[in-house]
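Hello again, I could really use a second opinion on something today. I owe you a coffee for this, so here goes:
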Amino acid sequence: MKSPEFVLGTLDSAPKGSSTPYVPRVRYCIFRGFWAELPENKHNDAERNPKVFASDCPTFTTDVRMEKVAQIFATSAGHAESKHQTQGSGGGGPVEAVYWISETGTQWRIKGRAFVIADDIEGDEESSGVRTVKSEVGKRMRVLEAGKEGVWSWKKELTGFFGNQSPGIKGAIR
């Protein structure tokens, strides 16, 4: 696509006294590729994973300070209730993404659950959020090269996606 923007819809808590518990929130995001299929970028010197997996999980990058992160956590099965609970991997809140492909006059709508993959995705201890992400996103990852699953790294994939960002974006993201 010439312009890889899409509109992402999340749910946020409605104001007190509202007749409904949630209200929709939408914003434009940039499609960064599919999880486990990091797009080539000659300016990215991050080590890449071998092509062991493929998925149909669209990715975008964001900052933990953005409202969409808290909304993805707060509307998930775990219902994060404090900012501390939204600082790492996890989530699973409902979302809808809408892509407009102007070249063909086509609209693509995707409904599902969004997960946050953060720096804690690999480490000595796995939080419940990390286990949830690996389980739920892992279900959507198709094996391309059997027997090599153990050489593929979640952290390396995350670092690669971050490396594909422009210097200005990298400097602004936490």
